Amino acid sequence: SVDVGVTVAEFPTTIGAAEACRSANQSIIMGATNVIRGGSHSGNVAATELGDSGLLDILSSDYIPAALLMGAVRLGKRQGDLVAGIRMVTSTPADAAGLDDSGRLEVGKRADIIRFCINDDLPMIGGVYARGRQVVCLNGQVLLRAFIRLVSCIVSWQRYLVSDSLPPSSVLLS
């Protein structure tokens, strides 16, 4: 994959494979559900093991989109650096995908934000903002239509990573 210019490695199955990806300067992606489950459902290397070894850059929603925030929080808390965990689902994937307008809160960027608190080690969403405007806030609960939009944007972003097409304009990363 390195020979054809691939810069992102999805789900390396062993520490050795992840080390090879790192030595090839590839960003390494693992599924957030792997973090939540405590390991791979197929017996491969655990995302937490790669994270502990400094061999994990990006979390993907994999097959449970709601796992993205929970996985980022769990990894961040495990490593004692919540910001580093959140970075795995914001600036790092945006940079890997070449999305200059997303992934961080800076003047001139999209300002797509999920406001949350942590209650009993679980992130609880309190508000969703798109392009700096609040689109959802209802007693700490995410409205279904906003959740569906968020999931749709995450899935669109993941499809972009494995295709040669331009990213969709509705990608929501920050």
Could you explain how this protein is built, in words?
With 174 residues, the chain is an alpha/beta fold. It has seven helices and six strands. It has helices at residues 15-23, 32-37, 47-52, 67-78, 82-87, 91-97, 144-161, and strands spanning 8-10, 27-31, 58-60, 113-119, 122-130, 133-136. The chain has a three-stranded parallel β-sheet. A three-stranded antiparallel β-sheet has the order 4-5-6. A hairpin with a 2-residue loop joins strand 5 (122-130) and strand 6 (133-136). The two termini are 28 Å apart. The model is unreliable at 162-174 (pLDDT under 50).
List its salient traits.
single chain, 174 residues, alpha/beta, three-stranded parallel beta sheet, 7 helices, 6 strands, 37% helix
Question: TL;DR?
Answer:
This protein has 174 residues and is α/β, with parallel strands linked by helices. The protein is 37% helix and 18% strand.
- Strand residue content: 15-25%
Instruction: Report helical residue fraction.
Output: 25-40%
How far apart the termini lie comes to: 28 Å
Total beta strands:
6
- Low-confidence runs (pLDDT<50, min 5 residues)? 162-174
* Spatial order of the strands forming the largest sheet: 1-2-3
- Counting DSSP H or I runs of 4 or more residues, the number of helices is 7
Principal-axis shape equals globular
User: Pairing-aware structural class of the strands and helices?
Assistant: alpha/beta
- SSE topology string: EHEHHEHHHEEEH
Q: Rg to the nearest angstrom?
A: 16 Å
Largest sheet: 3 strands, parallel
What is the residue-mean pLDDT, rounded to a whole number?
81
